[in-house]
Each structure stands twice: as C-alpha cells, then as structure tokens.
Amino acid sequence: MDLLVVGGGPAGLTTALHAARAGLDVSVWEQRAGTVDKACGEGLMPGAVAALAELGVSPSGHDLWGIRYVAGPCRAEAAFRAGPGRGVRRTALHGALREAVMAAGVRVEQRAVHHVEQDECGVVADGTRAGHLVAADGLHSPIRRALGLHRPRPAHRRRHGLRRHYVLAPWTDHVEVHWARAGEAYVTPVAENLVGVAVLTSGRGSYDDHLAAFPELQERLTGAATAGPVRGAGPLRQDTTARTAGRVLLVGDAAGYVDALTGEGIALALAQAPAAVRAVIGGDLASYEREWRRLTRRYRWLTHALLGATGLPPVRAALVPAAQRLPRLFRVTVDALARPAGT
C-alpha cells in the first residue's frame, strides 16, 4: 500500500480521493461506522465549494451569498464576490465525499489505529505496512499525540462549540454571526426547512444557557422544532510542533487549529489534502510543512487577530458598529475569507 489514511472525515476522504486519482494505492481507516455527524457551523465558503466541484463532489444544501454580523440593532453585511458558498449538513458532506471515494475504488475499513511504527522504508500501523501515513483523525488526533507533535496549551479561555438544528425555513441567505459579550452564534441555512445554529463560547453552561445571550435570535427560534441532539466540540485551539514526523503527515484539524471564528476549517482541509499527496508522490515531506504554512497563513493571522481583539470587552462591543461604519473594510475581510486557501 502506498498510503494509509487514518480518519474518514472530510479531510481524510479528500486526501484519499486525491491520492487515488494520482494513481496511489490508498486505504482509509475510520473507527466509526457509516456517515458521521460532528459539531460544526456547516457553512462552506465559496473557495471550499469550488474545491469540491473540482473533485466532482457537490453535496446538497442551501446557497449562501454572504456574511452578516449582528449585535443588537447594528448590522453589517457583505456579499461573496467569488460566487455563492453553501450551507451543508455535515452528514451530507460526509456522504457525498464517501460516495466519491468508493467510486474511485478506495478501500474504506472500520478500524482504529492503536500503534504506529516507522522505518526508512515505510510506516507500520497495527501490523499493516504502508509507504506513508496521513493522520486526519480530528481535532484531538491520537496519532499527533503519540508522535509527540502535540503542543499543550494553558486552560485559560478555552473555547468550545455547540450546535443544534431547527426545523424552520431560513430567514436569510447569509451566514449570520450574532455577537454577545461571551461568545458568538452562527446561523447557517442548510436546507429549505432546516437551519443550523452553532454557539462558540469560552463560558460554561448548556446550549440553551448560551443561546439566552442572544435574545433576538432566541425569540426567532422560539416554537421551532429541533432536529437531532446538541453536538459539541472543543477545546477548539490545538497547537502542533510540526505537521510531519518521519513518513507521517497531519492533515485537517489534526494538523493544528486556531478557532472556528472565520469558518475556514473545511476549506483548509480541502487545500491541505492535495498538498500532502503531492509531498508523498514527490518524496519530499518537508515541502508539505512549507505548503501547510503558506496555505494556512491567512487563516492563522486573521483568526489570531480577531480572537485577540474580541477578547477585550470594549473592542468586542465596538466590532459590529465599526463594521457597519466601515463597509468597504468589512467587504475586503469577507472577500479574503471567501477565496481558496493560499490565494
């Protein structure tokens, strides 16, 4: 086997699809069965929609035409100049990618990895040898930790995400970001009768506790039936010392994550996947480290800047009014988020 991909989420499946189309013998191991749901905002930026289209993957969803910031009576919005994004249920995205991978002849097995060894010729995972291994095993990647690539962080101001779906017709064709003192709520239409609402916060409490910080949004959702349970994820910030170790490469959230604030997680995974495959084919894993830094530079810079600024209460309170007064600057920022990673 040329490549073993550990993790069958969007990052792992996209990596496997690029590898198969490049002629590599590739397998995917995923410990969970079937289509996997996960807590996320579910809004694909236009760059992510374009990257999926290049792979022939077009999951069903709801077109998104921009981003709107909301704080009380203040509104600031900007359209995507690169074309629409798409609100997509995580299960729909996973199902479409899994179907494409199976059609490409990739072997997908329900297996977990317990032990990884390396030598100069390849990687051995639980007795199975491969030329290289891609760890796309998520935010809390066990492989990243086992290889000593995880960099612990202090517990101060750890952010978590919680998401719930509501059965009602979308009232907007934008991603709405509602701002409150301790967090943000992301409203994403994902179907004609389904809206996802994700809350990002550093505070403690239940989903309903956090939703109460957004009274206008809470009132709009009152009486709507919910679809499925509340799903959570976090802590969101995950640091790594490197993205490669020997013949192992980290892709997607496993490679490190700052925050979901800018909504670029899927777009980054879709850009990292072909970069990892190119490094494997070229036998130059150091090139992936360089490419990862280039692809994620904008995301890391912008997300760190927003987190740092909005961690200060006066700045946080002034953010949406400032975006309303400076629409051109807000449009430039939204345009940057909409572009493919690394451009």
Would you tell me which CATH topology of the domain at 3-58 and 88-154 and 236-311 applies?
Answer: FAD/NAD(P)-binding domain
Going by CATH, what is the homologous superfamily of the domain at 3-58 and 88-154 and 236-311?
FAD/NAD(P)-binding domain
- Helix-and-strand structural type: alpha+beta
Helix percent reads: 25-40%
What is the number of helical segments per DSSP (H or I, 4+ residues)? 10
Biggest β-sheet: strands ordered side by side in the sheet: 6-5-15-16-17-14-18
How many β-strands, per DSSP? 21
The stretches of 5 or more residues where confidence is low (pLDDT under 50) are none
The CATH C-level name of the domain at 3-58 and 88-154 and 236-311 is: Alpha Beta
Topology (SSEs and partners):
Layout: E1 3-6, H1 10-21, E2 26-29, E3 43-44, H2 46-54, E4 62-64, E5 66-71, E6 74-79, E7 85-87, H3 90-103, E8 107-109, E9 116-119, E10 122-125, E11 128-130, E12 132-135, H4 142-146, E13 150-151, E14 160-167, E15 175-179, E16 183-191, E17 194-201, H5 207-211, H6 215-221, E18 225-233, E19 239-240, E20 244-245, E21 248-250, H7 265-282, H8 285-310, H9 313-325, H10 327-338
Parallel strand pairs: 1-2, 1-12, 2-8, 5-15, 12-21
Antiparallel strand pairs: 3-7, 4-7, 5-6, 9-10, 10-11, 13-19, 14-17, 14-18, 15-16, 16-17, 20-21
Helix pairs in contact: 1-3, 1-7, 2-7, 7-8
